[in-house]
Amino acid sequence: MAGEKIVEALEIGTADLELMAEYEIAKASNPNTAPPARNLLFMALGNISAERHVLNTFQKIKAAALHDALLVLPFSTLPMLFTFLNIFATKEMNIPLTCRILFFMLKTHHKQIVASKTMRTMLDGIRESLRKSLKRQKDEMGFNLAALKIVGERVKDLGTKDYVDEETWEEGDGSSKKKRGFVQVS
């Protein structure tokens, strides 16, 4: 069921990508070109892009069922899937899910992918996009961690008081409570 949803989303999304690419080419030559009639599904979902629809389809599948759904995909759908994975990596759309899908598909279809020249060139593009986005996220995390350390030190400094009032200290120390004695029963 989930595998069929993925295949359907990939087919609809690929058709929309091709349609929008043709529109961009026509728009470059004639700026007054009317936008094409897109699939009604995209219009019903709020005029979302094809890559957003495919990503939403992947996100709706539970993590446990994702591997089973990806196993159902035939090898012929891999070029479409890798096209969208490249778009996800370039636009930094849910990088953990993108990596999980990519690594699973590489493990599953490793021999066929290595034998295909077109798949290797697609993987080079995905690798470059993923490296850029992961490096940016790593730099951002390092920057955020450094900022958190500085904020933590400031909070620690502001929370520590150097001045102690002796009168207040002595009043709190002089408790007049009776101490409890313990009796040993043998």
TrEMBL record:
Signal peptide: none annotated. Residues 51-151 form the Small-subunit processome Utp12 domain. Residues 167-186 are annotated as: Disordered. Residues 177-186 have a biased composition (Basic residues). It holds the Pfam family Utp12. InterPro entries: SSU_processome_Utp12, TBC1_cilium_biogenesis. Keywords: Repeat, WD repeat. One of its GO terms (molecular function) is snoRNA binding. GO terms for biological process: maturation of SSU-rRNA. The keyword Cytoplasm does not apply. It comes from the Eukaryota. GO terms for cellular component: Pwp2p-containing subcomplex of 90S preribosome; small-subunit processome. This is Small-subunit processome Utp12 domain-containing protein. The lineage of its organism: Eukaryota, Fungi, Dikarya, Ascomycota, Pezizomycotina.
